[in-house]
Amino acid sequence: MNTDDHFLWSQIVSHNDEKSFDRLFNKYYSGLIQYSQTLLPYPADEAEDIITEVFFKIWQQRHSIIIHTSMASYLYISVKNGIHDYHRRSRGNSFESVDYLLNDADDEYNRPDQRLSYKELDAEIAHLISRLPERTQLVFRMSRHDHLRYEEIAIVLQISVNSVKTHMYRAIKFLKDSYRASDASR
């Protein structure tokens, strides 16, 4: 989180500072409107309502929210989720829970030796990701962990889509090459 956002967020959480909250809202509002209008059908009149609802929830839950990424990333993901909720409500569709996938987990995965292997692999991949340059790491995490599209990442980081693609190419190439090298040394 950048220094200004970190300061604003700490004021909001620790002092219930409404002025800091307003500054945060004003800083990101126009970008979030623009972003949400790309995800909503024309005319995107609901964009303002969705963003207002997102900020309202953030204010209500400010003491329990822990932000692991940048404030911008957190807000854009929250708006994206708000838009998904809007689509579900407007269509009347209730998406099936993915809990059944967890209940029907493959027996192979549930074996203790396999779980240990998966944990070790996960730790190794996390270590390799941490070795990426900071900006490439951020782009990779936003894509793979936050499930943002390249266009969304470009908007959040204020870079071109081609730059996002370049960062992703470098990250994936580095991870593949490093994993192959570590796998060959075993």
Describe the protein:
This protein is mainly α and 186 residues long. It has two domains: 3-91, RNA polymerase sigma factor, region 2, helix turn helix motif (Rna Polymerase Sigma Factor, Chain: A), CATH 1.10.1740.10; 109-184, Arc Repressor Mutant, subunit A, CATH 1.10.10.10. The chain contains ten helices and no strands. The protein has helices spanning 3-15, 18-39, 46-60, 71-91, 99-103, 107-110, 112-130, 134-144, 150-157, 161-184. Helix 2 (18-39) crosses helix 4 (71-91), helix 7 packs across helix 10 (161-184) and helix 8 packs across helix 10 (161-184). The radius of gyration is 20 Å and the shape is globular. The chain starts with a helix and ends with a helix. Mean pLDDT is 80; it is low at 93-109.
Describe this protein with a few key phrases.
globular; mainly alpha; 186 residues; Rna Polymerase Sigma Factor, Chain: A
